Amino acid sequence: MPENNLKKFFRRRLIMNMKTMQRLCKGRSKRSLFRDLNSIGYLSSYSHAGRFYTLSDIPEFDNYGLWYYEQVSFSKNGTLKSTIRFLIENAKAGYTHRELRNLLRVRVQNALNDLIKIKWIKRKRVDNVFLYISAKKETALVQMSNREESFEGLHKRSPLTPEITIEVLLELIHSDNWHPKTISEYLQAKGVLVTKDDVEQLMTRYNLKKKTLKRLKL
Which is nearest to 45 in space by CA: 66, 21, 31, 60? Predict the structure, then answer.
């Protein structure tokens, strides 16, 4: 059956765009391929304008329901807007624009503006930054309170704990961007209280270089 052939191609490549599917499945129209995809279960990427596809059972989603493959991003929640809404709704302390952009690895401003217009999320200023929070009043109040506490914690926290050191090291191993500010912002988006200075201090203390940690991946 045509859908079985399509499955085989996905098992080898993991993700494909429509052009590749048409080339591999000679003679199948776009309409037929979409029918095949619906039959076997698929997801569209939330990056690259949704032009890439994968089978529903292929992604190994992280704790945020996200999966990245060859710079293409997929979400358990489907579209970018649905993903942002889910993340904000379930965030302990909301998200800033920068945190969402770092976490999702795509531009998010237009999607955020649209979600605010249709009142699916809210935006409030906290500690001189805009915080995107739940549209539900009670949830939003808790998120804003937690955010204010986390800002205070960043300034009052004692030196790096072993647990935070491990989180930083793991992020350095898996990241291609070693700028301390980027590393700290991504970790903060995941709920790890670490500053840019903390990252710089750790890298200096252990004389860390990208080559050194990249070997740990092998």
Answer: 66
- For residue 115, being part of any structural domain is answered with yes
Place of tokens 């909301």: 94
Per the domain annotation, does 63 fall within a domain? Answer: no
Domain shared by 84 and 140, yes or no:
yes
142 and 170 both lie in a single domain: no
Q: Is residue 67 part of a domain?
A: no
| Domain that residue 29 falls in | 2-55
Cβ atoms of 124 and 144 within 8 Å: the answer is yes
Cα separation of the two ends of the chain: 40
30 in a structural domain: yes
102, 189 contact by CB (below 8 A): yes
pLDDT in tens, 60-111: 999 999 999 999 999 999 999 999 999 999 999 999 998 899 899 999 999 9
Sign of CA dihedral 137, 139, 140, 142: positive
**pLDDT, tens only, 1-59:** 667 889 999 999 999 999 999 999 987 899 999 999 999 999 999 999 999 999 999 99
